[in-house]
Records
---
Amino acid sequence: MIEIRGDKKVLITPISTEDLADIKIGDIVWLDGDLMTCRDVAHRRLVEYGRELPYDIKDKAIFHAGPIVRKIEGTEDDYEMVSVGPTTSMRMEKFEYEFTKLTGVRVIVGKGGMGPNTERACKEFGAIHCVFPAGCAVVAATEVEKIVEHHWDELGMPETLWCNKVKEFGPLIVSIDAQGRNLFEENKVIFNERKEAAKQAIYPEVKFIK
């Protein structure tokens, strides 16, 4: 569902296709509910090796991130988030269509843009890709209320599936919407046009440089 809190548009898991219908590239949203960290190896295990995820992410969100966590003293198996910055989403590009199809994930969060596999997945299955601002890993950790589960610990801390409850996690900039539009790719066209015009304006001023 979607909830408006002041000037914030908050997506709350479970999220439906209808919830994403009016969200467009460039929009800024926040997330409440279930967010699981999920990187290269987890994608490969699911897509290439056919191993089911041990945590249901249908209508929920994943975060391309390798966090730093620490065990809470005095507990048997409880952890807290220390730092959770996004990793480059394009590393998951070749897996993301099949991953989205198999899992039903609704919101994919990471760093930087993604390509045609993810565009196709978002359009066919009703999902979005969002960018979390890089360099804000500690801020992101403060928006994690609790680590509720963790799986595939044998992969090491960065690749473990850390299953979190988050509150107003963001800001998240929508880079691919459920119609398959891609903010990064559309901006490349615009910026290249501006670049050419800027070059033509500069050339007369630097023509003495050989």
---
Amino acid sequence: MQSSVRALKKPRLDDEVRFLRSWIEKPLHMGAVMPSGRLLARTMAQYVDVDSDAPVVELGPGTGAITSALVERGIDQKRLVLVEYNPGFCALLRDRYPQAKVVQGDAYRLRDTLWNVLSTPASAVVSGLPLVTKPMFTRLRLIRDAFTALAPGAPFVQFTYSVVPPIPKSLHGVSTEASERIWMNLPPARVWVYRKD
């Protein structure tokens, strides 16, 4: 029994070591020192429509903590388009999610990165990017590009550890909602959802 518990904990520990190593090498490219907690990942996944057959774009999946929550929610791997900058994480994601489309590219240049990837508008963009470390111009360009890739009314889902929203709530023609603060995540986080009206 103890060996099976250790076997379940080992991938999580390995992922934490990978994350920490990548963060040490390039701290501003990483959204966190550790992968997203399960409760945070599940909260993000709940905003994605499982009944749609349109693609779901995940930005900065890292080792796949949020990806796993999407799959557990019932999102078919074939719908997933995983945009990851780190080539080591891309290899890991291809191994873990062989039916997903893994795109090695810069999510902050989303229009260029996705220009020949999506054949239909996405039903959601789920982001694990470190938005608060970027200038506001970069954040606004990202959400503009995400809305270009999304079907009308589809969500752009973003988490943050910050107490303020990562993208202003006052964007013209954009509605926002936020989850309760997720205290069981380390550090505590909140999920913000943006939809173009």
---
Amino acid sequence: MSWLPDDFVHPVHVPVPDTAVHLRPIREADTAIDYPAVMGSRERLWEIFGPAWGWPKETMTYEEDRIDLLRHEKEVAAHQSFNYALLDEEETAILGCVYIDPPERIGSDAEISWWVVDDLVGGEVERALDALVPQWIDADWPFRQPRYVGRDITWQDWLALPRAS
């Protein structure tokens, strides 16, 4: 059994209210704007995602990022997991990402996490994204027990949970 209904259609463009940014599924073609976003915020991102995902490595190359984005693009197409890029209106800069994944740990039917680039931490865009994500998941996704990792549970507590079978 899939983690999503067979007839589920994932959103392809999600405006972030009261901002000039939007979410859309990330693509391999985004590498040129993803790599500087990730590496420019790498130390903070490692503090968040490093213990769980081993990402982003200090030595991550452009090619490794391209391969990672290609994997994400294929996973979205197959409805295995979803990586949404947070983009400016012209799609000339990635400003963060939202991840929607099947559960790795018991107690939820999806695991959602997100980040913004260092320059946006604590600002209006981050606050707008923080408000949007749970509302968007509730309105447009078929989950009954989504878990917001790093939000409603710490990454450390999440890592301590038993693995989902």
---
Amino acid sequence: MLGQHGRGITRALFTAPARGLARIGVTPNMLTVAGTVATIAVAVLTLPQGRFVLGPVLLALVLIGDSFDGILARLTGTSSPFGAFLDSTMDRLADGAVFGSLAVWAALHLQAGPLRTWTVAIAVATVVLAAAVPYARARAESVGASAAVGIAERTDRLIVTAVGVLAVGLGAPAWVLTAALALVAVGSLITVMQRVTTVHQQLTGPAAVTHP
């Protein structure tokens, strides 16, 4: 949802820097891989240790940089099916590193009890559900349908998570992060359901019936 509205802003802000990258020979795929490596490194090196101010700030910078690969591909006319495949695959690795690192933090730093149990469980569920959202879209497209709908795109999920992490880093109670992760998990589940419903309508509804 936020991602859809923010694309125009990112294009306006980052088109000129992307042109500069193109002039020095940087390719979209280079940026995609570099952004993933940076995200995983930041997540693993900050979040499990509870560095909840530094981590979100660095992740936000990496997320902004992640916008460059698509803009660069459009500017240079190098958009390709492989590039889209690589970008989606790398995003799944990066997201898994973020949510998995938060599960590790909860397991290592929260006191034994219901909060720790719920936080770890929700973080692990978020790893799965966040990956299911783009999978549903990709699988829909593979069977000739379209599933570009839903309330929780990748940008939405990461922003909500980052806000929860930063809030705890600034002194909020740990349950704030648990609530943020729960919101991401529920939003992801709803998005998957929206996509399943949309594809069901496309493939089994009246418009899908072929008349002789």
